UniProtKB/TrEMBL annotation:
GO cellular component, one term: endomembrane system
Superkingdom assignment: Eukaryota
Name of the protein in question: DRAM2 protein
Protein family: Belongs to the DRAM/TMEM150 family.
Membrane topology summary: Multi-pass membrane protein
Stretches assigned to the CWH43-like N-terminal domain: 8-179
Transmembrane helix is among the record's keywords: yes
Length: 191
């Protein structure tokens, strides 16, 4: 039996594959219909104009559900593995709350396009990426506290590397954002 066929381990795999597909399919649709330039468009621009906007929204809503399910399974896993450690249980509850807030931000991104309600879209992005990074930090701390009994150091280091990568990606996005403060955009502006 393959590792992803055991229990609910297919959930994180499905989350990553489905989320990546939502970006790729909306990008391809936007390129084919000439709604954005093909060379490195802003990801929110690939989900701004119908029909890619509809595809992007539906697929990100499914990603939201998969993310919430994945985070709940992680929450239950940590609770079952450390039932008598109050510090870990408190951090675990905080992690679930932060994770679900991040997923709610993804739902906001999916349903409030950048060109229509810019500030709501940015709020969703802050929840998704900002709070999502804090969720990753909490999971990294949990991995540190649960080693060596339940986690190896390799899991801790892998989570720490992903957290640092996430933070550097957020920082580079903020630095490269440029003048994206317009609330209305025409299809020509996306080029």
């Amino acid at each position: 039996m393959w590792w992803f066929q055991q229990g609910l381990s297919f959930l994180p795999v499905a989350l990553v594959v489905w989320s990546a597909a939502s970006f790729v399919f909306s990008y391809i649709t936007a390129i084919v219909l000439h709604h954005v330039d093909p060379l490195v468009p802003y990801i929110s621009d690939t989900g701004t104009i119908p029909p890619e906007r509809c595809l992007f929204g539906i697929m990100l809503n499914v990603s939201t559900f998969l993310g919430m399910a994945t985070m709940y399974v992680r929450y239950k896993q940590v609770s079952a593995l450390s039932p008598e450690k109050p510090k870990i249980l408190r951090l675990n509850k905080l992690g679930l709350t932060l994770g679900w807030m991040s997923c709610f931000g993804l739902c906001i991104i999916a349903n409030f396009q950048k060109c229509i309600l810019y500030y709501i879209h940015v709020l969703g992005a802050c929840l998704t990426f900002g709070v999502g990074s804090i969720y990753m930090l909490v999971q990294t701390i949990l991995s540190y506290l649960m080693q060596p009994e339940l986690h190896s150091k390799d899991i801790f280091w892998a989570r720490l590397a992903m957290f640092l990568w996430s933070c550097s990606s957020i920082l580079s996005s903020i630095l490269c954002l440029g003048s994206g403060t317009k609330t209305q955009q025409s299809p020509q502006d996306l080029h």
